[in-house]
Design brief:
The protein has 96 residues and is mainly alpha-helical. It is built from 4 helices and no strands.
């Protein structure tokens, strides 16, 4: 699943978390396994979970104008990107 654009702003907001010793040990082990700091691991994991939560929405509250725009976007023909066209034109490894 594609990730939302990640901004490279300076980090000024502070987030404090409380965890059990077992949770902290688990997070530390996972971060170490990936070669990341605990902060980087926690932020990336939380960002991914937040994006997935927002992208998995099934209920949209829209007024008539917004609904019309939404339906028009869904009904519009897909516009494949250059990368997708290249991928689709590339023979599969088993076809070579």
């Amino acid at each position: 699943m594609p990730a939302m654009v990640q901004q490279q702003d300076s980090k000024s907001a502070k987030i404090n978390l409380r965890a059990t010793d077992e949770q902290k040990t688990l997070f530390d082990r996972a971060a170490t396994r990936l070669g990341k700091s605990l902060s980087a691991f926690m932020l990336e994991s939380a960002r991914e979970a937040a994006e997935n939560t927002l992208l998995d929405q099934r209920l949209f509250m829209l007024d008539d104008r917004q609904y019309g725009e939404f339906v028009a976007i869904l009904d519009a023909p897909a516009k494949p990107s250059k990368a997708l066209k290249k991928l689709l034109a590339t023979p599969a490894l088993w076809d070579k």
